[in-house]
Specification:
Distance between the termini: 33 Å
Strand order of the largest sheet: 1-2-4-3
Number of strands: 6
Low-confidence stretches: 1-5
Shape: globular
CATH architecture: Orthogonal Bundle
Keywords: Plasmid
Structural class: alpha+beta
Helix content: 25-40%
Strand content: 15-25%
Mean pLDDT: 74
């Protein structure tokens, strides 16, 4: 049997750079998915998964690059993520 992996719960690595899905960030930080997604759109720091070559069910998903985590999580409530990764 093959094991299924839900990609929405992890990050995607492409050309040495990590891209996080809003669902993953929301789950790690224990906040609403829609809060994260709206903040990403407001800050305009996302890329579409299909733009970096992801061709699957996530191709329309917004991804946040590792470099932009500091812009997204400047608030004290989000202590477990920064530009160096998950704490």
């Amino acid at each position: 049997m093959t094991e299924k992996t839900n990609l929405k719960e992890f990050f995607i690595e492409y050309e040495g750079k990590k891209y996080y899905t809003p669902l993953f960030l929301a789950k790690v930080n224990n906040i609403s998915y829609f809060t994260i997604k709206n903040k990403i759109k407001k800050l305009n720091i996302s890329v579409r998964a299909k733009d970096i070559g992801v061709v699957n069910s996530l191709s329309e998903e917004l991804l946040v690059a590792e470099d932009n985590l500091d812009k997204l999580f400047y608030d004290k409530r989000f202590k477990c993520l920064d530009s160096r990764g998950i704490r």
